[in-house]
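W.,

You were right to be curious about this one. When I first looked at the sequence I had no strong expectations either way, so I just let the prediction run and decided to look at it fresh. Below is the sequence, 487 residues in total, followed by the output.
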Amino acid sequence: NLGTTYFILYIREPDVPPIQQTIARITAAGLTYVLNSAFMAIVFWLFHLTRRNVGGVAGYAALVLYWMSFEYIHMQWSINWPWLNLGNVFAQDVHYVQWYEQTGIPGGTLWILLVNLTLFTAIKARWQGRKARSMRMAIGAVLLIVLPLVISLIRYSNYEEQGEAVEVVCVQPNLDPYEVKFKTDPIQQLERMLELCDSADTENTRFYVLPETALQEGATVFRAGGQVNFRGLWEHQVDATLSTRIMRNFLADKEAAMVVGAADRKAYPIKETPTARYIVPLDLYYDSYNSTWLVTRDGVEAIYRKSKLVPGVESIPFVSVLSFLDDLALDLGGASGSLGIQAEREVFRFDSLSLSPTICYESVFGDFNTEFVRNGSEAIFISTNDSWWQDSPGYKQLLAYGRLRAIETRRGIARSANTGITCFIDQKGDITSALEWVTEGALRGELYFNEELTFYAQHGDYLSRVAALISVLLLLWTWVRPLKGKP
């Protein structure tokens, strides 16, 4: 865990004294390393118990089933961290796993575990002097490796992109999140991003994609008898904000829409959600969101709110129970405490086209993204701000995971990042064009909008769900088996 995700230590909290910041970073990163390692160790401990109590093939099958169940659980609960799921390891070698369109990354996890267990059995048999069994298992391991590779390479060579070709422009403003992005005029930032859009578009451009939290304008909240200034974009005022007016003016003579990240807020008269906070001067509650807006020349057409939050940064795990810890969440992006989320996967629609408004960390979750596709999404737009990790493997890994989403759903991806890497990814998972890290610019590309559903898009993590069901039965058998024969 430490060797792969050491970059978590790079995240810091703005405007905090260095000593406190160092303690906070080490504590947060240390908890991630220790907890995730402990979860993995628990899997091996449960495997050990089943192997001891049940034995045989079922004992070794337990390792595969328990590990796949762990990875599935780790994508569902409040302390989700599927970064190290085994199937992710092929994210840089997408030509090896084109069959993810059938299985998703759980298929990759299953592949790795089966190959390793087969090799282990072959080596063990060799040590025990059972040469014939060792040879059979070695041949089995070779076949397990070679056959999926051959199938994938054939699929990779023969696959042709499906759907309608659409011209898209993605922006990379290159704003340092610690020193510039949240400390300089957001309106000037927006105007500069629109200049970049204008420098790259043509009359055929249908979409402009701006990065995560590109909009963070201060707004005015009105109440009877006066008004109070409170920082944030308020959802009941979206069409009245200066940011929206500027974007509408930009789009006025264009047959195009803008997909843009926003740090917005929603007010309530009462505490409607566990994450809602109280505004004392207004006697109101509100939720902060990491959102994406669909903007046309007519105004804000749709808002999607990020639903897979980064634990400890955007949310406190189990906030409904541990609400007293809510103020401990790191202040990244202009708001401290847990952000609000959206229950459904809303698809953005413009003319006859539809897309997934995926936000940053959400691109790690395969099953999650299939929900957009089942709701009608024909392409994936990712808005992100990877520069919290600075120049480390973190942003490269996140980019690579997005490539797996393209294969799983056979959806092209337009990715707009604040600092890097802004790019286009085709339906085979290949990066077709990209801007370099810490480079300001705009990228124009062609994206195919595909309406066909892959088997994985239709069924999601079915392998993991089956593994979880069998794991429950196997754990019960592990507990009951030693009791057999006891008085």
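Here's what jumped out at me. DSSP finds twelve helices and 16 strands in the chain. And, maybe more interesting for your project: The first strand starts at residue 164 and ends at 172.

Coffee later to discuss?

I.
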